[in-house]
Amino acid sequence: xxxxxxxxxxxxxxxxxxxxxxxxxxxxxxxxxxxxxxxxxxxxxxxxxxxxxxxxxxxxxxxxxxxxxxxxxxxxxxxxxxxxxxxxxxxxxxxxxxxxxxxxxxxxxxxxxxxxxxxxxxxxxxxxxxxxxxxxxxxxxxxxxxxxxxxxxxxxxxxxxxxxxxxxxxxxxxxxxxxxxxxxxxxxxxxxxxxxxxxxxxxxxx
Length: 206
Prior knowledge:
mainly alpha
């Protein structure tokens, strides 16, 4: 649904009072943009005689970036659908004890799923950042800044997605469970990757 909209249509929907798409969808889109930048760097390296030594490596980077971009685009709709399920759970009747119990369980399940989707976005963005590091180090130096921009976008997307993980886990009292530990660890590693790629880019740009 959302990936098929034009950029302007998506932004209009995002800026509206509609409950979704929200921050999670925006994070997934930012991650997809980062993956697209990595693909661009690879495509501007592949096929050039002066970069023949890294041809195979850049083809791999290009293909992996394309796969990650597709998964991040799919996550836009998955995030919106997970939010709808949370809203459906909140709307369940709660007049009797049985209804309240059913509503609590449905809400818990929906919130857990709503946390898993952005957690996957964080993991995908970490992979994008790793590819951006390879692209920056081995790809066409004329687009070095684009490889570094991919790392910056990937980290920002992951940080935004992590906020959604946290708020959904907190909704069911699971803010300190194993899923959040994995997300936090990836954020730390991603920040280090982004810092290294950007620092090296500035040093080489001069």
